[in-house]
From TrEMBL:
Protein name as catalogued: VOC domain-containing protein
Domain VOC: 8-138
Lineage: Eukaryota, Viridiplantae, Streptophyta, Embryophyta, Tracheophyta
Domain of life per record: Eukaryota
Pfam families per record: Glyoxalase
Length: 143
């Protein structure tokens, strides 16, 4: 038996040199809602994707000694075709075709894939800070 019980994802945090720009992207592209954010002495924006998932956008530490990678860079630097399996957040969406068309209209470079079942479609892309994202036409998880 696992040590933790009743586990579910509470939030994912992303550092950004421009928190407001990144928040606008997640609100316009994926429909996140802005919620009350704490005063941490640095710029933060908390976003929620109903019913419970939250994304915490936090001002990137300019003194950070972490190396620049495609996943913490200040801009998207990698072709979505090469987005690694282990560095992305995935969302299930019900309007896959129109959503992908919207990404294209906004000039967001995507890589599409269809699973061997011939039904499951996926699109890979990056947010403005180079964080990998995936959307797919899976059925939403049951609560």
């Amino acid at each position: 038996m696992a040590a933790a019980q009743g586990v579910c994802i509470h939030h994912i945090a992303r550092g950004s040199p421009d928190v407001k720009r990144l928040a606008k992207f997640y609100q316009e592209i994926l429909g996140f809602e802005r919620v009350e954010s704490p005063n941490l002495g640095i710029e933060v924006v908390w976003l929620r994707l109903p019913p419970v998932f939250t994304l915490h956008l936090i001002q990137k530490d300019p003194e950070s000694k972490l190396p620049e990678t495609p996943w913490n860079a200040s801009s998207a630097v990698v072709d979505p075709k090469h987005l690694t399996r282990s560095h992305h957040i995935c969302f299930s969406i019900s309007n896959y075709e129109s959503f992908v068309q919207t990404l294209k209209e906004k000039g967001i470079e995507i890589f599409e894939n269809t699973q061997p079942d011939g039904k499951t479609k996926q699109a890979f892309f990056f947010d403005p800070d180079g964080n990998g994202l995936e959307v797919g036409n899976w059925e939403p998880a049951m609560q």
